[in-house]
Amino acid sequence: MKDLVEVIAKSLVENPDEVVVTETEKEDAIYVELKVGASDMGKVIGKQGRIAKAIRTVVKAASSKKKVIVDIL
């Protein structure tokens, strides 16, 4: 899941070097944290959170084993 979120985020932002994705697996879910530069935050979230919601939807569809939670920091 980490690689999927990283590829999506890097294609959206102007500074792909600032994209940092961390993945933590716990017993009930997989937590994916996405950090981008301050100037690219709006591009990852989108108007009314549409792009962030789309990223979460794609990641949930790709995961068949556990619940995946994507946090944008």
Rg value: 12 Å
- How much β-strand is present in the residues? 25-35%
Overall pLDDT, averaged? 91
Count of domains:
1
Named at the architecture level, the CATH assignment is 2-Layer Sandwich
Low-pLDDT stretches are: none
Structural class: alpha+beta
* Span of the ends, CA to CA: 17 Å
Helix content: 25-40%
List the helices and strands in order: HEEHHE
Q: How would you explain this protein's 3D organization?
A:
- About 15% of the residues are buried.
- The chain has helices spanning about 1-10, 40-45, 50-60, and strands spanning about 20-25, 30-35, 65-70.
- The chain has about 70 residues and is of the alpha+beta class.
- A three-stranded mixed beta sheet has the order 1-2-3, with helices on one face.
- The protein has one domain: K homology (KH) domain (GMP Synthetase, Chain A, domain 3).
- The mean pLDDT is about 90.
Quick take:
This protein is an alpha+beta fold and 73 residues long. The protein has helices spanning 2-12, 41-45, 50-62, and strands spanning 20-25, 29-35, 67-72. The relative contact order is 0.24.
Which features does this protein show?
73 residues; alpha+beta; GMP Synthetase, Chain A, domain 3; 3 helices; 40% helix; globular
List the helices and strands and how they pair.
Blueprint: H1 2-12, E1 20-25, E2 29-35, H2 41-45, H3 50-62, E3 67-72
Parallel strand pairs: 2-3
Antiparallel strand pairs: 1-2
